[in-house]
Amino acid sequence: MRTRFRPDRQLTARMVLTVFLLGLVYVAFVAVLVALLKSWVAIVVIAGGLLAVQYFCSDRIALAAMRARVVDPQQEPRLHGIVDRLCAAADMPKPRVAVADTDLPNAFATGRNTERAVVCVTTGIMRRLDTDELEGVLAHELSHIAHRDVAVMTIASFLGVVAGMVTRFMFYSQMFGGRRRGADQTYLLVVLVMLVSAVVYTLSFLLIRALSRYRELAADRAGATLTGRPSALASALTKVTGEMARIPTRDLRTAQAFNAFFFTPAVGARPSLSTLLSTHPSLQQRLDRLAEISTELGEAAPSA
């Protein structure tokens, strides 16, 4: 899709590299399964089916999980006005616009292509941000759609799904009668497959998290460049992160599964683990990058 969002060759290269590395790991993983098991095809077919459902129905699944509804311009004129202006500036098709009725201040974009794309904001973030700040957030989310990284992240997650399923399958098969047939050799086989699956899951998890962090920085840059106001996006980041601390922990943990797609994570990793395990860069890193973009654009640097 051609848009006025600046092509991000570094993001494209990282997405290609991540998928390539995951593909290598996946080939090695299947080779091990072929050598050790006879039922690996069923596992891959099941996981492939789950991936197909996730890929083709991701927009409906996400909206249903967040209890969001698609709204028209009469229902949300301010929101549609911002999206209309941004899509015109970016020369991209307008996605569907949805609102989730929750106090959690956040936003996300989903959909496998521009025809199925949807950008969703919560009532909590609309209430807390002014128009310029909300425009910065929506420009960030629209860049995810323009760069097709939602689809890439869905495909990249396939290997982790397969590895996780294999681990559970072998664990339960061992618990419910796997050892009765036999043999210490069978038990050793089960343990070996579980170890291989765990290693594969860990590698895919770390690769996907690294890509997720970079794609957020890329979306910050693309969104700030499109609006020409990095300070507004920085202000939105600071405000949303601060307001998140006031949300009950129980509500945050309910939304934690959406962290990889949210504008800011509902529940972040502990500082000692954030580098490897977080879906997003730290707030300070994002603000520092936006300050650099402000300097490039000649705008006053955003304050933290």
From TrEMBL:
One of its GO terms (molecular function) is zinc ion binding. Gene3D superfamilies: Metalloproteases ('zincins'), catalytic domain (3.30.2010.10). Keywords: Cell membrane, Hydrolase, Membrane, Metal-binding, Metalloprotease, Protease, Transmembrane, Transmembrane helix, Zinc. The active site is at E141. Binds 1 zinc ion per subunit. InterPro entries: HtpX_protease (IPR050083), Pept_M48_protease_HtpX (IPR022919), Peptidase_M48 (IPR001915). This is Protease HtpX homolog. It comes from Dactylosporangium sucinum. The gene is htpX1.
